[in-house]
Amino acid sequence: MMSKTLALRIVLFFRIALDAAVSSFPLFLQPSSRRQLTNTDTCRSSRSLHGKADDNDPVAVAVAVTSRQGEVDHILRTRRTINKFHPTLMEGWEEIIQDAIISATYAPNHKRTEPWKFHLLGSETIRQICELNAELVSQKKGPKAGERKLERWLQMPGWLVVTCQKTVSSSGSGSSEEDGNGETTKVTISNDDANMDISSSLAREDYAAVCCAVQNLCLSLHAAGMGTKWTTGKVNFDARFDEIVGIDAKKEYVVGTIWFGTPENAKGKMYPDAPLKKKTLEDVLIRSA
């Protein structure tokens, strides 16, 4: 009679092989369970792992855990910066963006300040930003370069500007914020972000949280079949940019603009090849005694 250990190994082998085969399909052609993990799926997974019926079934538990980890790793390792998009957004894109923003707000946030805001731009605002950027490029590289840049930027179908609140000091006068430990910290609003190199500053914590939120956003959109590009060009930090987008420069600052849309396949591939890594695992993993 086949042992449980051998049965587990056989099941895991075939499940991993199946996952590898399905993972080669474009994300938007894969079953919805592989594209996004909904709250319902989470509850169902929790029940299957912790319910009485499965407690004594190591095969079911191992398969469930391996499958979910494989799906997450696949999303993490296939996300790319996309430079070319289809000119129109996919059907239902607004709901996808809203879901992605919700996922973004689950990013690590040490002080629980929720410092992020997401500005979804309309067509008129996008055109004004594109024209402002073309003006900046023309001043530096000439009018022809500005025209080329204007044409390219106008081709970007979706625009989302992500900002961080300007709570940049943990001392002085200002409003009170309660951290995760129930302690209260005084914070002040400032236009000077120079103290972000101070490891204990709230500004550093908030900026890191917003960057994590951007990563969550990009991964969620990738899982739904949409590509992204996180841009931080000079135009993002021009005072006129704030005015056009409607950003309150006294309370928030731009972390970046996210272009989003359906990726335009390059050489028949769903997503570009991963850039060659300069460092190996041995280079970045440091073990201590």
Question: Would you write up a description of this structure?
Answer:
- It is a single chain.
- With 289 residues, this protein is an alpha+beta fold.
- The protein has two domains: 4-78; 93-261, NADH Oxidase, CATH 3.40.109.10.
- It has ten helices and seven strands.
- The chain has a four-stranded antiparallel beta sheet with strand order 1-2-7-6, covered by helices on one side.
- Helix 1 runs parallel beside helix 4, helix 5 (93-104) runs antiparallel to helix 8 (202-223) and helix 6 (123-141) runs antiparallel to helix 7 (143-153).
- The radius of gyration is 23 Å and the shape is globular.
- The two termini are 45 Å apart.
- InterPro entries: NAD(P)H_nitroreductase (IPR052530), Nitroreductase (IPR029479), Nitroreductase-like (IPR000415), YdjA-like (IPR026021).
- One of its GO terms (molecular function) is oxidoreductase activity.
- Its cofactor is FMN.
- This is Nitroreductase domain-containing protein.
- Residues 76-261 form the Nitroreductase domain.
Question: Secondary-structure map with pairings?
Answer:
Layout: H1 4-23, H2 32-35, H3 39-50, H4 58-78, H5 93-104, E1 116-120, H6 123-141, H7 143-153, E2 158-165, E3 167-169, E4 175-178, E5 184-189, H8 202-223, E6 227-231, H9 239-245, E7 252-261, H10 281-284
Antiparallel strand pairs: 1-2, 2-7, 3-5, 4-5, 6-7
Structure, briefly:
The chain is of the alpha+beta class and 289 residues long.
Task: Kindly list the characteristics that best describe this protein.
single chain; 289 residues; NADH Oxidase; 2 domains; 46% helix; Nitroreductase domain-containing protein; NADP; oxidoreductase activity; NAD
